[in-house]
Amino acid sequence: MTERPQYNSLRAALEKTDAEMTTAEVHGVLCGMYCAAGQAELGKWLEQVFETFDVNNMLVKEASQLLVGLHRSTQEQLNDAEAGFQLLLPDDEARLSERSEALASWCQGFTFGLVAGGLKEGADMPQDSRELIRDMVEIARLGHEESEGDDEDEEAYMQLSEYVRMAVLLINEELQPLKPAAETRH
To answer: What are the two backbone dihedrals, phi and then psi, of residue 130, each rounded to the nearest 5 degrees?
Structure first.
C-alpha cells in the first residue's frame, strides 16, 4: 500500500506554496473526482490544487510529492474491499473547532470534486447518492463556535465524520459500480 502523507505535513507543504485550498479540501476534491469519474487524473487534480502549477518551483515540487502519495493511497483506499478509506483530517489532538472546520472544508472540496470530475447537476443517479451529496453540501456550510467542546460535541463530530466517510464509500459504489470479473474459458 502506498504511504499516505500525514495531515500536518501536507498542510505545512501546501501553506508554503500559497495553495488556494485547505489540506482537507484538497483530499475532498480528489475523492469527489474519483467518485464522479472512477479515476482522478493526477495532472488535472494538481491543476485544481494550485492556481499556477509551476514544476520549476521547489515548494510546489515538494508539496506535489506528498500529493502524489495522497493520490495513490486514496485510489487504493477507495477500492479497498475492507472499507479502509479514511478522510484526511486533523488528528484527535487538534481543537474541535479546527477539526470541524476541516470536515466542512473536506465536504466542500468533495462536492467541487464531483463537478470537476464530470458529474453534471441534475445527472441521473441513485436517490441515496443524491441525498448524501445534499447532506455533504449542508455539512460544508456548517461552522463551529469556538468553545472547549464537551464529550457530546466530540461524539457528534465523530459520528458526523464517520457518516461522511461511509457516504463517500456508498457514493463511490453507486456511481462507479464494480464490474463483474469476466469468465475465463479453458
So the answer is: -60, -45
